[in-house]
Amino acid sequence: MPHIKSLREFVAELNRIGEIQQIDTEVDWNLEVGAIIRRSYDLRAPAPLFTNLTGYGDSGFRLLGAPGALSGPEHPLARLALAVGLPATASGQEIVEALAGAREKPGIPPVVVHRDAAPCKEHIVIGDDIDLYAFPTPIIHGNDGGRYIQTYGMNIVKTPDGSWTNWSINRMMIAGKDTLACLIPAPQHLGIIRSKWTEIGEPMPIALAIGVEPGLPLVGGMPIPEGADESHYLGALFGEGIELVPAETVDLLVPATAEIIVEGHISIDETVMEGPFNEFPGYNATEASPKQLFRVSAITYRDNAIQPVVAAGPPVEEDHTIIGATSAAEILHQLRGAGLPMASAWYNFEAAVHWLTLAVRGDWHEITGLASHELVDRIARVIFSGKPGVNAPKILLVEDDIDITDLSQVVWAFATRSHPDVDRGEFHFPHRVSDQLAVYLSPEEQHTFMAGKVIYNCLLADLYPQGRRPVKGSFENGWPVEIQRRVLDNWEKYGYR
Ligand code: MN
């Protein structure tokens, strides 16, 4: 698979297919950038590349908005497809299968390159010269509490014994010229590793890599298991190791082509106010609260560095595309690994990563001999026992005559096939590990990361004998082939254009 090894190569490839809008007009990093990105999501317009930010005109620093958003009908998933090494026209199912397929392969560890071959070392700033305000980091949404430098970069940390390195995306806000405020939820891998540092009484070394090669942010949102290195998985996906280089002031390896690397430590006990910041459920945020403090010990960066920016909010933005596609792939991998007859998995982007749609093979009942409630239980056992279930509070289970990437088919299946009765059409699983951002959660649920889950059973195969199942009365299924052909051949003769 072609492997795009830097954000700059990614921008060049997007530009080649008409998916970059370079904006040389002066644009204010204070809210104007964010509003342009939001509108680009709404219009599925090319990704804005801002070259002239208010107060930063001569710096050469740039911002790239909407790096993983949807495009127009010609290649709607181009930004995701190119990031995983597929052609720009790849479908959602093809992207999910590529991601799930790489989970079957042995990991390939990263390759450490010499610092002279690492563009991220073009400029090195340490000590009193560190100034996070040197970059045109935006205030994105109208009520945000500050300038968010980390919306699409990689947080790189490892366990004190060095056995597990984790790459993830968690938002970070600039708190001062050499400090950041970090959201570190306890159940996430970043929080689990941080607790291991807290146990031994040391601040956690961390590197934030901003503007990384396009495959990396995908795994930042992918729920691969605790203890697994995202870099090894990416190596398997691309068939070669990711190029890394040692950081300057912490014992961590960072992506060699990154635009900006911010190094330092997460304080053991200091906190700083963070937020509000709009998030992927799609509502305006109003709350600020104390968060972990990141003390910066070095910044390294490329000439004319590019910062990617995600304006999180209502669908469809990167949280929905990236978390959706990668979580679907991981869940598909785990269900298949449990021997279940899965056809596909997909997060319909419009549902803001709050519902997952699963398709089982049409012959699941014959293969497994299970009733649908038993299949529901098997699926629940796999998904809700681990990390992938965090972002799956609602699951729709259908047969594979439904194209689950087509929302209109999913809605039709749910409405017409799921029985309204509890324990026939819907199955409840109380008190499972949950995300904390859904607006329907109680304060208790948000605080404990525990809440209920539901699976909507839209399966028909165990309700009807074979050959008697309801068949969609579509154009293709409802008329003889010769009539279909006559209608298609004569379509314009009828006066249609
Ligand atoms: Mn992880």
Brief write-up:
Helix content is 27%, strand content 24%. The protein has helices spanning 7-16, 32-43, 78-83, 92-102, 189-199, 215-220, 230-238, 318-337, 364-368, 372-383, 407-417, 443-448, 475-478, 481-489; strands spanning 20-23, 47-50, 62-65, 111-112, 123-126, 148-150, 154-158, 165-168, 172-176, 179-182, 204-210, 243-246, 253-255, 260-274, 289-301, 306-309, 342-346, 355-360, 394-399, 426-433, 450-457.
What would your notes on this structure say?
It is a single chain. It is built from 14 helices and 21 strands. The protein is α+β, with helices and mostly antiparallel strands and 497 residues long. It has 2 domains: 7-309, Electron Transport, Fmn-binding Protein, Chain A (Pnp Oxidase, Chain A), CATH 2.30.110.10; 338-475, UbiD C-terminal domain-like. The strands form 4 sheets. Strands 5, 6, 7, 8, 9, 10, 11, 14 and 15 form a 9-stranded antiparallel sheet that branches. A 5-stranded mixed sheet has the order 17-18-19-21-20, with helices on both faces. Strand 7 (154-158) and strand 8 (165-168) form a beta hairpin. The longest helix has 20 residues, at 318-337. It binds manganese (II) ion (MN). Manganese (II) ion is lined by residues 166, 168, 189, 224, 230.
